[in-house]
Design goal:
The complex is a heterotrimer of chains A (66), B (253) and C (299).
Chain A (H helix, E strand, L loop, with lengths): L1 H30 L8 H10 L3 H10 L4
Helix pairs in contact in A: 1-2, 1-3, 2-3
Chain B lengths: L1 H16 L2 H33 L13 H23 L4 H6 L1 H7 L4 H34 L8 H23 L5 H18 L28 H24 L3
Helix pairs in contact in B: 1-6, 2-3, 2-6, 3-6, 3-7, 6-7, 7-8, 7-9
Chain C lengths: L3 E10 L2 E11 L4 E5 L6 H8 L7 E6 L2 E2 L11 E4 L11 H11 L4 H14 L14 H13 L5 E5 L7 H14 L4 E6 L2 H7 L2 E6 L2 E7 H7 L4 E6 L2 H10 L4 E2 L5 E4 L5 H11 L3 E7 L3 H9 L2
Parallel strand pairs in C: 3-8, 3-9, 6-7, 7-8
Antiparallel strand pairs in C: 1-2, 1-4, 4-5, 9-10, 11-13, 11-14, 12-13
The chains are: A mainly alpha (66), B mainly alpha (253), C alpha/beta (299).
């Protein structure tokens, strides 16, 4: 238990960023139906399964510019 | 001056409203936390590996120090830089393909000011993200470890920041004659690879901008003569940016 | 002094010569329709006027000043609406106009009052959404507003109506008519009915030159080879008329048309009176712009 407490200062913010990005990307994916690359199902899976990189990849290459 | 200000304001509005700034901020913050976390976990990981693999002999588990945390930082910041380049490579080309720049130019917007505004915006975003990333690592490291073992942290941090500027100059330069973000990314990546290859020649290594990415050597007071690479990097940034102006003036939109 | 004068403009792309000595004069306070089929060089001409393309030869003056390639100072007299105007999608209409005003160096107070006035005029006042959600018609109207922001002496619109539905088209045309009070309008189109509805002057671009140009009323007067419609009663009368005048064109619905250059209507009338042929009507029809255009095109 103590050991985990030692890592909390890292785990909490990392988890917040991870889930924040994931939720933001999912919201964006469901609000739009056109993507520069790929389709909705693909991006949902990527954003759910690949932590950090998934949502970032979506915003970098999947999301439409406008 | 008003033209420049208005254009910079527009660039920042775009960075914010396209969410690009937030994503980059999150990525840089993430890696800022990851670096000390990885350093802290290191002995645990080594222990786990040693338990599972009996042949793995632990010579002497050395104490984790601030140095390990900053080592991780300089490793992770290059990943962050890649994300930065990928997300910002379209800063010009987006405007070419959509045709938005055309209306600004017919209104008398000067082309060199477009370059200045975009280069400024990229620099500001890079600086802010880099500060977030480094600031986070620094705060954690100072809290968990003794900082007195670190030799020349600030020069190393500054050199890496300048190394990032070199990539910004490349994005700007390539954007003046390429028309897609992908092409800009590929060319920037190609230059990086070329630098890496050239660095295999032992005598050339010190002169190549990519040498600056090894600035963490300074932390251990190793012999790290960065001056030639620094000078060459700064000169090439100036050359790239000043070549961009006539190139961009010639560009047909 | 004309607002825009183009003399012997030549422009090629590769070895394809698009403009072959085009000359054009746009008088002040006119609504000038620049007509031509797609791909005849209308956009090329307009982009050259704006200094976005370099002409091979020829001279263009805007309000007496010469146009140069690149950042031409003459652009301060011109408001430009490209065929598919693209604005920064992340801005609102008001923000975009403010941005335009700033980069063209307008006075801050003037920017505010002028944008409000223009957004009102094009029906976008109070529009708080970002441009990315705008319809084509809304974008086109915002395009006119941004073009008029600096009170230009000349408003250049590239096919402002072609991508729009009939309602959107009417809105744009109405705006252009209202705008005429303060500026000259030059717009390109291939839709002749739009030109007929609002233009005072026209120029037909064909094969790289202006094949017909001038004020619309003058053109109508000088090209008065009127078309007559002749409708006889019964097939007997029709056959007799056709036999006597082979130049009659059968429309297929029991009537004929002919041009007064080929056949005098009086001759037809006296022929019918002599033979006591019953006629339903003999009527002169105003040539439409399309007829004129067809005549110019030679079809």
């Amino acid at each position: 238990m103590d050991e985990i407490r030692e890592y909390l200062p890292f785990i909490i913010p990392l988890a917040i960023i991870q889930f924040g990005l994931m939720i933001a990307s999912l919201v964006h994916i469901f609000k739009h139906d056109k993507y520069k690359v790929g389709n909705r199902a693909l991006w949902v899976v990527i954003c759910l399964l690949v932590s950090i990189i998934g949502p970032v990849a979506y915003f970098a290459v999947g999301k439409e510019d406008s | 001056m008003r033209q420049l200000n208005a254009f910079i304001k527009k660039e920042f509005t775009e960075q914010l409203r396209s969410r690009r700034l937030y994503i980059l901020g999150a990525v840089f913050l993430f890696f800022g936390i990851m670096s000390p976390a990885a350093a802290k976990l290191m002995p645990k990981i080594i222990e786990l590996v040693a338990e599972q693999d009996q042949s793995f002999k632990i010579e002497a588990v050395k104490e984790v120090s601030a140095l390990d945390s900053f080592d991780q930082f300089f490793k992770n910041v290059s990943t962050s830089l890649i994300v930065f380049v990928i997300m910002q490579a379209g800063i010009f080309t987006r405007e070419y393909s959509s045709g938005t720049l055309l209306l600004s130019l017919t209104r008398g917007m000067e082309r060199r000011k477009v370059i200045a505004a975009k280069a400024f915006t990229l620099t500001a975003v890079w600086t802010a993200c880099y500060l977030v990333c480094f600031g986070t690592t620094y705060a954690y490291t100072a809290y968990f470890w003794d900082m007195s073992v670190v030799n020349d942290l600030w020069t190393a941090v500054l050199l890496w920041w300048i190394y990032g500027l070199w990539y910004i100059a490349m994005i700007v330069f390539f954007s003046t004659f390429l028309n897609s973000a992908t092409a800009v990314i590929v060319c920037t990546g190609a230059i990086f690879l070329a630098g890496d290859l050239l660095a295999m020649i032992p005598k050339a290594e010190r002169f190549i901008p990519t040498y600056l990415s090894g600035s963490s050597g300074l932390l251990r007071a190793r012999d790290f003569d960065y001056t030639p690479a620094l000078v060459i990097t700064l000169v090439s940034i100036v050359l790239l940016l000043s070549a961009s102006v006539p190139m961009f003036n010639k560009k047909q939109l | 002094m004309p607002v825009l004068e183009i003399k012997d403009l030549v422009k090629s792309f590769g070895d394809k010569q698009v403009l072959k000595g085009l000359s054009l004069t746009v008088p002040e306070k006119s609504i000038f329709g620049f007509i031509g089929q797609n791909g005849t060089g209308k956009t090329t001409t307009m982009k050259t006027v704006l200094g976005l393309l370099r002409a091979d030869s020829g001279e263009i003056t805007v309000a007496g000043e010469k146009v140069v390639y690149g950042n031409t100072p003459t652009n301060r007299h011109i408001g430009y609406l490209p065929d598919v105007p693209e604005f920064y999608p992340f801005m609102t209409a008001g923000e975009y106009l403010a941005f335009c005003g700033e980069i063209s160096g307008m006075d801050r107070g003037e920017i505010r009052s002028r944008s409000e006035e223009l957004l009102e005029a094009v029906g976008l006042a109070g529009e708080k959404h970002r441009i990315k959600g705008y319809s084509r018609g809304m974008r086109q109207r915002l395009g006119i507003a941004q073009a008029l922001l600096g009170r230009p002496r000349l408003l250049i619109c590239d096919e402002p109506t072609s991508a729009l539905d009939p309602v959107g088209r009417k809105e744009i045309l109405d705006i252009l008519v209202r705008v005429r009070e303060e500026t000259t309008v030059l717009f390109s189109t291939h839709i002749l009915s739009d030109v007929e509805r609002i233009c005072t002057d026209v120029a037909f671009l064909r094969e790289g030159v202006i094949s017909l140009g001038g004020s619309l009323s003058e053109i109508r007067r000088s090209y008065r080879s009127d078309i007559y419609i002749l409708e006889p009663e019964g097939s007997e009368a029709a056959a007799a008329l056709k036999a006597a005048f082979p130049m009659l064109t059968d429309t297929g619905s029991g009537s004929f048309t002919f041009r007064d250059t080929e056949l005098s209507p009086f001759e037809v009338m006296s022929f019918a009176a002599e033979r006591k042929l019953p006629l339903i009507k003999l009527e002169r029809s105003e040539p439409t712009l399309e007829d004129l255009f067809m005549e110019v095109v030679g079809q």
